[in-house]
Amino acid sequence: MPRKRGHRRLSGRSHTALVLLSFSVSYLKRLLREGHYAQRLSSSATIFLAAITQHLIAKVLELAGNKAQNSSQRHITPELVGMAVHHNALLSSSFGMTTISLVAPARHQLLNYTWVLSPGCPAPGRASPWLSGARPAH
């Protein structure tokens, strides 16, 4: 007996397996639905987002693995991930204001830090007039 038109046969595979990704498509779909980012969600939007996320993670881990291998370390640490992101121009511009957990600011960032003072702001090392209770003259 022939099947009815309009009904497709379901394969027993997940969306992630169908598009050959390792990052979960259904998990991202649930997050996007629960986050109320849009009224409607395209079926290809979650697949595209999963592919982009998987590619970014693979690139960052590849760069961090290269840093670990160059410094003869056996494990990828958060510091190596931070250095890998910072030393790659494209990733550095993309993740410019992102804080990577458990990573202290790099030594070269602290050395190149310049103080930008506004006219009413005290120089570094001096007591602030706001702390003493006195108001600065305007």
UniProtKB/TrEMBL annotation:
Assigned keywords, A-Z: Chromosome, DNA-binding, Nucleosome core, Nucleus
Residue ranges of the TM segments: none
GO molecular function per UniProt: DNA binding; protein heterodimerization activity; structural constituent of chromatin
InterPro entries: Histone-fold (IPR009072), Histone_H2A (IPR002119)
Compartments reported by the entry: Nucleus
Keyword Lyase belongs to the record: no
Taxonomic superkingdom: Eukaryota
Cellular component GO terms held in the UniProt record: nucleosome; nucleus
UniProt family annotation: Belongs to the histone H2A family.
Subunit structure: The nucleosome is a histone octamer containing two molecules each of H2A, H2B, H3 and H4 assembled in one H3-H4 heterotetramer and two H2A-H2B heterodimers. The octamer wraps approximately 147 bp of DNA.
Name of the protein in its database record: Histone H2A
Organism listed in the record: Muntiacus reevesi (Reeves' muntjac)
